[in-house]
Write a structure and sequence with these properties.
The protein has about 325 residues and is mainly α. It folds into two domains: about 210 residues, HUPs (Rossmann fold, 3-Layer(aba) Sandwich); about 80 residues, Tyrosyl-Transfer RNA Synthetase, CATH 1.10.240.10. The protein contains 14 helices and five strands. It is elongated and about 75 Å long. Bound molecules: tryptophan (TRP) and iron/sulfur cluster.
């Protein structure tokens, strides 16, 4: 069997946090070993919600790519590119728009969710409604087999499959149906116990240095029933312990749990131990990020090279698409 082609993307909305890393990026890094991967910075998708103030998008592209590289995305193995560098995505978006029934888009649960969560913005735009059509174009234009995404993206993936089927039905077999590659995101709360999210201000960023990570962790909420140092705690009720489950070796972790339940160990030492293990993973990422950030021209070069590869692949598909639809060019 041919090497599966993988495509995924992220919107350039700012630096990536540990939740983004564990929920998607870490999986992308692993997929590079077995798949032909393309990773897209979806700047047009960022415009669907940030059209009122697009001034940060360009800077954020750089931040996101820095995070990708620092985490281990390897431009020698994978193609990294910016969506708007490959204009053919817009052409396919337009053509797919012709065959996508608007009720499919109006029914999309993400559409309603985001409209309700971002009440300060007017999201009654055509572009926002068409978000999943553009995403389908991103995927189908590379005839991707697999799309690694978090659960929140499953409705979009389902739409991409429906659009592919409809296209194939109308104009003949052109697109493989892309499968969602679900990332098993471990339950990872933010520092306040809620879901880790940039907008909650409760995140640990890949760009954070060691002192920042330790300071943030020191403020993290623990078992709220454990008020005094002498009160016993319950690790199962503590968001910090979820980090231990991920980063601390089992034996040591069991010891921490016992110490917490008997009040033999305090939250201060418990967190300190956690940070030692956490930094084993984050330290090298942070270090690479610092080195990469010192050579800004490198990012531009790499994105330019990625765009050339992506455009070539996209053009091949577009030739088939135009022919299938009986268009002139
Ligand atoms: N919608 C995705 C998100 O918000 C980003 C994205 C854009 C994407 N194009 C894509 C994801 C194509 C997978 C495939 O996270
Ligand atoms: Fe949580 Fe550790 Fe404090 Fe127990 S000792 S409540 S696990 S931070």
């Amino acid at each position: 069997m041919a090497t599966p082609r993988v495509l995924s993307g992220m919107r350039p909305t700012g630096r990536l946090h540990l939740g983004n890393y564990l929920g998607a990026l870490k999986n992308w890094v692993a997929l590079q070993a077995s798949c032909d991967c393309l990773f897209c910075v979806a700047d047009w998708h960022a415009l669907t919600t940030d059209y009122g103030d697009p001034s940060q998008i360009t800077a954020n592209i750089r931040e996101v790519v820095l995070d990708w590289l620092a985490a281990g995305i390897d431009p020698a193995r994978s193609t990294l590119f910016v969506q708007s560098d490959v204009a053919a995505h817009a052409e396919l978006f337009l053509l797919l728009g012709m065959i996508t029934p608007t009720p499919w888009l109006e029914r999309n649960p993400t559409f309603k969710d985001v409209q309700e969560n971002l009440k300060d913005r007017d999201l009654t735009t055509y572009g926002f409604l068409g978000y999943p059509v553009l995403q389908a174009a991103d995927i189908l234009i590379y005839r991707a087999d697999q799309v690694p995404v978090g659960v929140d993206q499953l409705p979009h993936l389902e739409l991409a499959r429906e659009i592919a089927r409809r296209f194939n039905h109308l104009y003949g077999e052109t697109f493989p149906e892309p499968a969602a590659l679900m990332t098993e995101a471990p339950k990872m709360a933010g520092l306040d116990g809620r879901k880790m999210s940039k907008s909650y201000g409760n995140a640990i960023y890949l760009a954070d240095d060691e002192a920042t990570v330790r300071a943030k962790m020191a403020r993290a909420v623990t078992d709220t029933a454990r008020v005094r140092r002498t009160d016993p705690g319950e690790p199962d009720h503590c968001p910090v312990f979820d980090f231990h489950r991920l980063y601390t070796p089992e034996g040591e972790r069991d010891e921490v749990a016992r110490g917490c339940r008997s009040a033999a160990i305090g939250c201060f030492d418990c967190k300190k131990l956690l940070c030692n293990h956490l930094w084993e993973e984050l330290g090298p990422i942070h270090q690479r990020r610092v080195e990469l950030a010192a050579a800004p021209g490198r990012i531009e070069e790499l994105l330019a090279a990625g765009a050339v590869v992506a455009r070539r692949a996209a053009e091949q598909t577009m030739a088939r698409v135009r022919a299938a639809m009986g268009l002139r060019r």
